[in-house]
Structure formats: structure tokens, C-alpha cells
Design goal:
Helix content is 45%, strand content 9%. It is mostly helical.
Length: 161
Amino acid sequence: MARCAFMISSGSLISRGARIGRFDERYVIDHVDTDYCMRALRSEVPLYLNTQVVLRHQIGDLEAKSLFGWKIHVINYPAVRRYYISRNALDLSLAHMRAFPAILFINVYTLKQILPMLIFERDRLRKSIALLVGCFDGLLGRLGGIREARPRVGKYLSRSG
């Protein structure tokens, strides 16, 4: 087994003796597993990855596009998912950057998706609003479900374009 820093929580085996608490459900979807791994590392609980086990996992509606000869992967996440990705990445960065400064790089994933989203995806305005509101809420530490925290915004983002 290989030692790793991050792993997807789907299909994880967790030791009962770890004593680092439960998954933080306030993250709702994205980075729930990242937060758990960061807390484990801070508590010096080792993380292991069994490379023999494969769990097929679909993210968004992945499409390959071409822009000036470059192959670009467009994910087509729904707007509300864009909100959680940006919010949770910023919140995690703020929560763990003292212990692990490299955590700031999880925001690169969000930034890397912006241009392809603006060029190729459907419902660009709603997704852009989702990213901006997510960044704002991430900086403020406003977690939990968007429909509870911001009912009108949650309703708007949950509609399909």
C-alpha cells in the first residue's frame, strides 16, 4: 500500500481508533474527504491507499474540447456544485494553511476550470455567480447547505438554464 495525502472518501475504510471525529457534513459535497484527511494528518494519523482497489467515479459531464489545437476537458458541473467547490476549497485553505501551506493549491483546480467553463459550458452566467458567491462564503466561513444559508441564491443556482 502507498502512503498518500488525499483520497476520495467513497469506499474508504476508517479505523475506529483514529479519533479525529466524523466527516464535516457542513461541506455538503466537495472536499469533505479533503478536510478529513487534513485533520488526520494534523493528528498524525497515517493515511494509506490501496492501489489494487478501483472505484469508478464520475465527475460532472466530462467532454473533451479543442481550443487552438489544445485539448481541454470541460466538466459541466451544475451551478450549485460550482458553488460548493469554490466555497469549500477556500474554507479548507483558510482552516489548514498554517499547518499545510500547500493546501492553497486546491484553489488552482477551481481557477483552472473558469476559462473552459466560460468558453464551452452551458449556463455560464449562473455558474459564474455560483463561483463568486462560493468564494465570498468560503472567505467568510459560511458553511452548510446553500438552500438553508441562502434560500434565494440556492433556489436560483439549483434551477437548470
